[in-house]
Amino acid sequence: MVYCRCGNQLGAQARFCTSCGREYSAAIEPSSSHAPAAQSASGAGAGSAPRTTRSSGPAAAAAGWDREYFCGNIESNQESWTYRNGLVNCERGLKKNMGFKWTETQLTADATEFGHGVWDGRKAEWFFPHDDGAFWTMIYHPQQERWENTQIKWRSAVHWVWNEQDAGNARIYVEEGSGRDSIEGADTNYVKTGDVPPPVALFVAMFRRTLALRDERIERMSRGYSRCGKFCGGATVAPVLCASCSAQGPTCVVCGNGVTGNLTPGKLCKMCAIKKLFCARCGDRVGQTSAPGYLCGKCPPLGDCCKMTYQVKTM
Questions:
Q1: Largest CA-CA distance found in the chain, in angstroms, rounded
Q2: How many angstroms separate the CA atoms of 231 and 268, rounded?
Q3: Among 246, 237, 230, 312, which Cα is nearest to 279's?
Q4: Neighbouring residues of 57: CB distance < 8 A, sequence distance ≥ 6
Q5: Cα 20 to Cα 12: distance, rounded to the nearest angstrom
Q6: Are 246 and 253 in contact (CB under 8 A)?
């Protein structure tokens, strides 16, 4: 049997410990002389704590794995983060001097409005206060060394690759072809040096991107839309939607709700057809990721153009 340093038994194909998130490369055999230290019943000081028989399970992780073993950095072109004894701090980047605290299952921020990360040993998720459900969800696939973005509330999925290197270092980078419509200028390559829990590296890599996506989503939801409504005549140009506006499947251009049953294609008038390469709802360039725009039963076609314009509502 192989055990993590926190005492949790590891499966044969395990990549990370399900209790503390430690990498499999840090695993040790039960008989190893590197077993975690524990305080003796007599209350020996930290500097003279004797080695004792290992205790297993999450309790051992909570007792001291983060204070004894992990210390490292995560960096990109725009960001520099440190990990020290369960404390994560932004040294350079969007939220300089912002701090987080890591337990074996959660990454919590000093400022709660920026959200928190949750890790269950296989699945990583990010939550914002007052939101319904996770903003995004990542599943780790050990055989592929890949974080699969199975759910995200705004724009298209962003998958990450975990590339292990020498001396415990690793690269975490956006999978080729992934997140093509994501936030412009977001870093796609991070380097982990030293001993940092892999889920922490993922949360850090997604942090700046997550805040930008959240802010953009809030701005879009605050818009007041109006329909062009001009008569289309014999126009045959169909509207398209970007990945964000069509993320939930077939979508009505006018109201933004999902469309089920019979799908009624929308139309663009001659003037709006000039902008056929832009999303008919939000106005973003669709690029290589687009979906047809439809009309739902509550937004009848009536031969009118369904291109939308908007104004941002003021609070």
A1: 90
A2: 9
A3: 246
A4: 7, 8, 19
A5: 17
A6: no
Half-sphere exposure (CA, 13 Å, Cβ side) for 76?
A: 22
Handedness of CA 53, 2, 18, 83 (dihedral sign): positive
Residue 273, SS3 per DSSP = helix
State the residue for tokens 């690759």. 161
Q: What angle do CA 99, 36, 4 make, to 5 degrees?
A: 80
SS3 122: coil
- φ, ψ of residue 219 to 5 degrees: the values are -65, -45
pLDDT per residue over 83-97, tens digit each? Answer: 998 899 999 999 999
Cβ neighbours for 64, distance < 8 A, ≥ 6 positions apart = 36, 37
Rg (CA), the chain: 25
Instruction: Kindly report the backbone phi and psi dihedral angles of residue 198, in degrees, each rounded to the nearest multiple of 5, phi listed first.
Output: -55, -40
Rounded distance between C-alpha atoms, residue 128 and residue 117, angstroms: 9
CA distance 107 to 6: 18
What secondary structure letter does DSSP report for 113? G
Q: What tens digit of pLDDT does each residue of 229-257 get?
A: 898 877 678 899 987 788 778 899 998 88
- Taken in order 35, 37, 41, 44, is the CA torsion positive or negative? positive
How far apart are alpha carbons 58 and 183 in whole angstroms?
38
Ramachandran region of residue 233, left (φ > 0), alpha (ψ -120 to 50) or beta?
left
Q: Are 280 and 266 in contact (CB under 8 A)?
A: yes
Strands 290-295 and 251-252: parallel
Q: Do residues 252 and 295 make contact, with C-beta atoms less than 8 angstroms apart? A: yes
* Cβ pair 2, 27 in contact under 8 A: yes
Spacing of C-alpha 121 from chain mean position: 16
Q: Are the beta carbons of 312 and 270 closer than 8 angstroms?
A: no
pLDDT tens digits, residue range 118-159? Answer: 998 889 999 999 899 999 999 998 888 899 999 998 888 999
